[in-house]
Write a structure and sequence with these properties.
Elements: E1 2-15, H1 20-33, E2 37-42, E3 46-48, E4 58-69, H2 71-84, E5 99-105, E6 110-111, E7 116-117, H3 126-135, H4 142-147, E8 153-155
Length: 161
């Protein structure tokens, strides 16, 4: 189903297997090429230690999109991009070649076995809050950042950005 009016949505991107930086940058491109999706903002890349997960450090980011797709259709698109990047789900919080999470879809509030909006743990994760603050600073308050101050995260200013 295609919606009539565009909706602003926010997507968290992360990877910690293989060339995680390249995987996140390729996901930016894949989203930008997806039908009915327009990327309107992109955070810096951040490097973070695994939080409630395993493996090497993650590369994380957040993108703001405008879309006419429904929230479940956005989720389908995100999962297709993950699948093309080789994403496997052998167990909960396994290391990942690419992880795309729909954080917000307009002002939608929904809870289903497949999708909960807003994302239920967005305020608990530095790897979401810092990049989200880049593209939606009004949404992330100082109290949010203070809550995750103990989680290791830094901007990834590596060459090629």
């Amino acid at each position: 189903m295609i919606l009539r009016d565009p909706v602003t949505a926010y997507v968290a991107l992360g990877a910690n297997l293989g060339d995680a930086r390249a995987a996140v940058l390729q996901a930016f491109e894949a989203l930008a090429c997806w039908p009915e999706v327009l990327v309107t903002g992109r955070s810096a890349l951040y490097r973070s230690a695994p939080h409630e997960a395993q493996g090497p450090d993650f590369i994380n980011a957040v993108v703001r999109i405008e879309t006419r797709l429904s929230a479940p259709e956005v989720l389908d698109a995100l999962q297709a991009i993950e699948h093309r990047a080789g994403r496997l789900r052998p167990y909960v919080n396994a290391p990942r070649s690419l992880d795309l999470d729909l954080l917000f879809y307009g002002d939608a509030c929904m809870h289903s076995p497949r999708l909960t909006l807003p994302h239920p743990r967005w305020r608990e994760r530095a790897f979401v809050l810092h990049p989200l603050a880049d593209v939606w600073p009004q949404r992330v308050g100082p109290e949010d950042l203070a809550r995750v101050a103990g989680q290791a995260i830094e901007r990834d200013d590596a060459e090629g950005e």
